[in-house]
């Protein structure tokens, strides 16, 4: 929501993209698709997808979209936020996307990784070495 409100409240630093509706739409669809694919994989493995309870995981999902990123649901969210920032055409909103990535990494992902290391040990450590946390980081 901060991206929307910053984009609307501080309209000074703006930009326009060619085909911005199409770009924003594709990013939104990609974000939703990636997140849903991840949720489906969790359901298939009968494990929790609740981020507030990573210690309740009963399986480590490492195939499908998880071969590309360890955090596809967060990647999906980031893509949707990027789509909104691009649609708003706000440079300030655009700058909030990496802020989201940093905050979600520090507050949610790192604690999840600690819990998964405790649960799955060497298997999770190998997964961490073979699959980036984000798409390329």
List the helices and strands and how they pair.
Elements lengths: L1 H8 L10 H25 L27 H17 L2 H40 L7
Helix pairs in contact: 1-3, 1-4, 2-3, 3-4
Question: What does this molecule look like?
Answer:
With 137 residues, this protein is an all-alpha fold. The chain has one domain. Helices cover 66% and strands 0% of the residues. The protein is built from 4 helices and no strands. α1 packs parallel to α3, α1 packs antiparallel against α4 and α3 runs antiparallel to α4. It is elongated, with a radius of gyration of 17 Å. The chain starts with a helix and ends in a 7-residue tail after the last helix. The model has no long low-confidence stretch (mean pLDDT 88).
- The total of helices stands at 4
What is the H/E string? Answer: HHHH
Percent helix, as a range, is 55-70%
Main beta sheet strand tally, sense and closure: none
Please tell me the total number of domains: 1
Q: Work out the strand percent.
A: under 5%
| Number of beta strands | 0
Descriptive labels:
137 residues, mainly alpha, 66% helix
In a few lines, what is going on in this structure?
Helix content is 66%, strand content 0%.
């Amino acid at each position: 929501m901060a991206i929307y409100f910053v984009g609307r409240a501080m309209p000074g630093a703006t930009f326009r993209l060619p085909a911005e509706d199409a770009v924003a739409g594709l990013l939104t669809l990609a974000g939703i698709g990636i997140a849903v694919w991840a949720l489906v994989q969790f359901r298939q493995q009968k494990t929790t997808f609740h981020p507030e309870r990573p210690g309740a995981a009963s399986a480590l999902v490492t195939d499908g979209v998880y071969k590309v990123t360890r955090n596809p649901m967060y990647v999906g969210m980031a893509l949707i936020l990027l789509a909104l920032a691009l649609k708003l055409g706000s440079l300030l909103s655009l700058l909030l996307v990496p802020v989201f990535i940093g905050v979600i990494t520090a507050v949610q992902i790192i604690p999840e990784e600690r819990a998964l290391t405790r649960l799955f040990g060497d298997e999770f450590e190998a997964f961490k070495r073979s699959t980036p946390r984000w798409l390329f980081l």
